[in-house]
Amino acid sequence: MVGCRIPDDVSIISIGDPDFARTHVPPIAALRVSTDDIVERTVELLLKRIKGDRSMPPQRALVQFDFKPRQSCGPLRAPVASSGL
Q: Would the pLDDT of 31 be above 70?
């Protein structure tokens, strides 16, 4: 992707909000998630498994997030047609 410009050609979003995201040029947009919520849900499921409840099917869990828009995100544009590669 040599020659790509942020955000003119590509948008960048980090998962989490590390310090460098705020100080990078341009500042990087971030999806901030609560690791406490993720850990709590994971421990609940793990404890059920340890206690012998192995009948549970795989599960998906939704977590809350907070989007911090910054200058690394450009406007939404129409999709570009695939070159077939």
A: yes
